[in-house]
Amino acid sequence: MGLAFDNLQRAVLEAGPGRLEAVRAGGGSNAGADGEEVPTPSLLYPAPGPCCSSLSPRTPSAWARPFRCLLPGSDARAARQEAPRRSLWEQAGDAGGRGTPGLGQPRGNRTRGSVPGPLGSDLLPTMRWSRPLPRTLWGPGLGRALQPADEHIPFLIHWTWALKGDCTFGPHRVLIRHRGSSVGSGPPSGRHEQLFRSTSAAEAIQRHRRNLAEWFSRLPREERQFGPTFALDTIHVDPVIRESTPDELLRPPSELALEHQLPPARLPTLALSQLFDPDACGHRVQTVVLYGTVGTGKSTLVRKMVLDWCYGRLPAFELLIPFSCEDLSSLGPTPASLCQLVAQRYTPLKEILPLMATTGSRLLFVLHGLEHLNLDFRLAGTGLCSDPEKPEAPAAIIVNLLRKYMLPEASILVTTRPSAIGRIPSKYVGRYGEICGFSDTNLQKLYFQLRLNQPDCGHSAGGVGVSATPAQRDNLVEMLSRNLEGHHQIAAACFLPSYCWLVCATLHFLHAPTPVGQTLTSIYTSFLRLNFNGEMLDSTDPSKLSLMAYAARTMGKLAYEGVSSRKTYFSEEDVHGCLEAGIRTEEEFQLLHVFRRDALRFFLAPCVEPGHLGTFVFTVPAMQEYLAALYIVLGLRKTTLQRVGKEVAELVGRVGEDVSLVLGIVAKLLPLRALPLLFNLLKVVPRVFGRVVGKSREAVAQAMVLEMFREEDYYNDDVLDQMGASILGREGPRCHPEEPPEDEVFELFPMFMGGLLSAHNRAMLAQLGCPIKNLDALENAQAIKKKLGKLGRRVLPPSELLDHLFFHYEFQNQRFSAEVLSSLRQLNLAGVRMTPLKCTVVAAVLGTGKHALEEVNLASCQLDPAGMRTLMPVFLRARKLGLQLNSLGPEACRDLRDLLLHDQCQITTLRLSNNPLTATGVALLVEGLAGNTSLTHLSLLHTGLGDEGLELLAAQLDRNQQLQELNVAYNGAGDTAALALAKAAWEHPSLELLHLYFNELSSEGRQILRDLGGTAEGGARVVVSLTEGTAVSEYWSVILSEVQRNLNSWDRGRVQRHLELLLQDLEDNRGATLNPWRKAQLLRVEGEVRALLQQLGGPGS
């Protein structure tokens, strides 16, 4: 048997490459299983047995890796001692190695400096059994006649054997994390260039590595937002790559469309470094096909692999040549040789192109995006070509590379979408790998940790803002991790690495300084551009329909129907109804088949929430609202009247003009003057249809505005907080699954509609094959403005008002916003948590307006100094500014000083109560008071001034000549400081009222202040208590209302003590007066004070 096989192998080697290709294709037939015509070989090959997928010899080359299949009973020692054989090709290589001497020499006769191939690759591939095999071990076909050629037989037998678990695999490695940065580091030194030993060749490879590294290291703008130190080659999480089988590739597409399946435990997983490892039987793998649906990370994986090679992390390959199949398809049928294609794209490789054929398996071609090429493996369609310098169509060159007819020893990595896998016959593929994404939540957590922990770029609007601290970033990652563990739907969404990117980009947008012009809509549009990039749905379809346009038409329809009926869960009938609506031709069914296999599960995911199993949801909730808005702005929502009426109107309009012109000429000769008048009526039809379309746009605008201003949503969080909660989860107990669900909220839908009409997003949509006409955008904007002008004048709760402003921010049209918001006079955002993003939104929308704002209320908004600097343009338009309860410290007083000193400042009332300004802050504040000419009312209630702060005010008060009211109550000041400030107030020319109540005043001090106030003529009135002499102070309600408003935030014990003193004062004055009217008033005020004491738990009655 061994001798017969050696003779067989020798005959093959002498037959030449054409005969070898025939042997590869399968014997006994003129047509392979894939329809490819092949010559009929005269050699008989045994069918594969249970141990090996194929026993056919490999293509001979000096760099071919040998394999030995030692079956039970074979003599391994004899096999190892077998002398190497040399082929005719190797001998020819010795004579003309083109600068690589010794390539064909035996191991013992190599000259000094020659480098052996990997794993003994200088040996000829041989196979020998040490003794005859029993017939029971021959396997199917060894003792029978020749079977018809079938490309599926070797792989089916191989993978059936693998599934039985008879072979063990190496350790699974699904994660690569490189620490450190390659920025500034060069490619590896020349010590790795074993084949290209000459100095010029080594330098060419080095230049090629540098050029590739520079090109593939360039990140799109969307990636650069994660920080200046973010680099793909240094921080990366590999998705799970599962070794696949031809059996699985033949599954019906319906099983692949709507299921996110985790990798079966019985099939091995692969790392990038393992893709070209020998298969289960030890056979060398030369061609690997990686496939995955949209969003699984094929492009990122290729980019990472190229960068790994550039920096010496893939030592198995000495030369890597990546090709974009989209680039090759753009050349069309224009002939070009492989050498020309390489030289045009990689100039440094020109001088080593003659050596490319001698590189063997250490040359790696990367063919990315095979779905862009139409490959024909039939000999009638694509002839055989083994010369890399012969011009052929690019598709023909790729076919011959994959056939292993051109550069037969080169390694090839192919990436493609699932619908295009069948374009390569499986007999030319050594390994299939399915990119399964992040099927483990630990991979998702690691991805989030690496992405979110990058230092921020700090490019916020106007150049202001601060980056998140490491503690804040860690807290963000921790909250996200907890939500991934408890909220299984977001974990199902992050199964796709692209959605992990979207989650990180959204969190970065919500919590980091926002780059100028970045909007939530632009993030989603960029997300789709990164994943679809204007790709065609099917390159073989003559319509050239873009994948995104098809998704907008089908998934947009489903999304809009869900928004209209207020539902987020869809049955399989709902999905099929939207996908199959209007399909009548075979071409349309083919497009649907491609979409189902390649992109459907990018948009839809099976619901994993209790009570909704068996239904489907959009992968992330906001994607439903985005696609619904896209469906509307693209004009895809058309009624039957609109669809039919448009065609009729255009037809009638064209015919009417022609007929009217002809009859107008004829009517001058014949008495038919009435006919032209009748046909002139036809010209009215297009105008009537235009009005119908306009009414439809107004109806859409009305629905959008009503969704924005729904009264049921008045007490919801603003949309930005809702967005954050959907990703990070909500703190506190979750709702029980059996509780009735709350009404679905679609407040992002109008925001996305406004955002998609912006010029920036329309430009990106045009790149995706979804252009929005300028006229349509203008008419939609006018309809929205008309409805907003009517409904936008109502007084809105703070959260709804912020949503309204966020809509304008997404729209990015200052003229539009200025016209719609011209009636806005009060900006009340009290209680809204003002994050850096929200400050940017408010400043961008209102900072450029011309009219004054009567009041800006930002009380209890968690505002910080950075947010104040962002909002400075809005503050300059305000007449009354409320910044109470914001924990503003002395640092904020520096910005307040600059605000008061600004020449455009028009603030008359400034409320800073309940902020820890302290005396340090007041020292800065009085500098602003000295140069300000507009401020009349200043509240420094409960700001921690103490005696020092009041003394500073007393010393500098006379530098301001416009102040009319000053409130320094509840500041812990004593008698001396209070008396000094009171004297300065009495001498001030314009000050009318000074509040000093709730300070640490003694009874004697309060009495002195009352006496001075009673003797001063024309000076400021000082309020130190609820009484004035034996009467009730006219400011008693102001004092008690302040106490009531701040009862929960002030020191309860301290407030209780002050209220008890006030109660004692009221009781003393009631006993000292005989006026019954005054007694009644004092009793009424006593009742209010006792009620407050009861709330504090003190003596109520």
Automatic annotation (TrEMBL):
InterPro entries: Leu-rich_rpt, LRR_dom_sf, NACHT_NTPase, NLR, NLRX1_C, P-loop_NTPase. Residues 286-420 form the NACHT domain. GO terms for molecular function: ATP binding. Its main location: mitochondrion. The keyword ATP-binding applies. GO terms for biological process: innate immune response; negative regulation of canonical NF-kappaB signal transduction; negative regulation of inflammatory response; negative regulation of innate immune response; negative regulation of interferon-beta production; negative regulation of interleukin-6 production; negative regulation of macrophage cytokine production; negative regulation of RIG-I signaling pathway. It comes from the Eukaryota. Pfam families: LRR_6, NACHT, NLRX1_C. Keywords: ATP-binding, Host-virus interaction, Immunity, Innate immunity, Leucine-rich repeat, Membrane, Mitochondrion, Mitochondrion outer membrane, Nucleotide-binding, Repeat, Transit peptide. SUPFAM superfamilies: RNI-like. PROSITE patterns: NACHT. Residues 80-126 are annotated as: Disordered. GO terms for cellular component: mitochondrial outer membrane; plasma membrane. It is found in: Mitochondrion outer membrane. Belongs to the NLRP family. Participates in antiviral signaling. Acts as a negative regulator of MAVS-mediated antiviral responses, through the inhibition of the virus-induced RLH (RIG-like helicase)-MAVS interaction. Instead, promotes autophagy by interacting with TUFM and subsequently recruiting the autophagy-related proteins ATG5 and ATG12. Also regulates MAVS-dependent NLRP3 inflammasome activation to attenuate apoptosis. Has no inhibitory function on NF-kappa-B signaling pathway, but enhances NF-kappa-B and JUN N-terminal kinase dependent signaling through the production of reactive oxygen species. Homohexamer. Interacts with MAVS. Interacts with TUFM. This is NLR family member X1.
